[in-house]
Amino acid sequence: MILSMTGYGKASAVFQGKKIIAEVKSLNSKALDLSTRVAPIYREKEMEVRAMVTQALERGKVEFNLWIEQQEQADACPINDELVAAYYRQMLDISVKYNIPEPDDYWHTLIRMPDVLSRNDALQELSEEEWQVAREVVQQAIDQLVAFRSQEGEALQRKFEEKLDNIAALLTSIEPYEKLRVEKIRQRIMDGLASIPDVEYDKNRLEQEMIYYIEKLDINEEKQRLANHLQYFRKTMEEGHGQGKKLGFIAQEMGREINTTGSKSNLAEMQNIVVKMKDELEQIKEQVLNVM
Q1: Which of helix, strand or coil describes residue 59?
Q2: What stretches of the chain adopt beta strand conformation (E)?
Q3: What are the tens digits of pLDDT across the range 107-158?
Q4: Measured between alpha carbons, how far is 21 from 39 in angstroms, rounded to an integer?
Q5: Type and span of the H or E element at 165
Q6: CB atoms inside a 10 Å sphere around CB 1
């Protein structure tokens, strides 16, 4: 069963009055393109988090976030009063030294100075108990995304099966026109010769040339190769995830055979069928970009 590269997962847990939340989402990409944002208290575990995500997701443009929402009033960001006092003294000294008028509201200015407000999670040390809770939250979010990818993969596979069936049916519908096409080509050549007055030609040589010309327009090999590609595409989907690039290559080969069939058709009805096959194949190519 194939997997989609598109997915979303989110999980949370409460530990000692704070809510730990992990969120991960992914889109299609040629390789793994991972970006992470984690709360400062978990920064030391970022490499472990990246390893967990990389091992589980393998491919895609992935965004991962791990943050904390405080649930208790006591967890409000503390004010660094010593730093506030230091800033205040410096501002007074500069005001006197350069004869700059003092502001009407020192507090409004001081509270905006760097590092005056210190987050709890930046000051606290990470305990092993908290990390185990956070790690489980990360794993749950990843598992949700993998499950999402699996559901999307099933939908993609159903879509691919439908499009492959349509191409196979269109390929079969070409057959009645093949004999008609040969007769039309032969008749067109004979009518062209008949329109030329007093022309003499070697009928045996003409027959040989016509056979050669018609053989050049034969599409049996293209039909057989296309049928093989359709079967190979189905087989590859059953091989499991990680086959996205391979399916893309097979779709390209299918396109080659369809294009060659169109260039050899030389009959409006057959060319119309080829256009329909191209339309079905384009829909496969668009969606195969989302396959892991």
Answers
A1: coil
A2: 7-15, 18-27, 32-38, 60-70
A3: 878 887 877 766 555 456 889 999 999 999 999 999 999 999 999 999 999 9
A4: 10
A5: helix 128-173
A6: 12
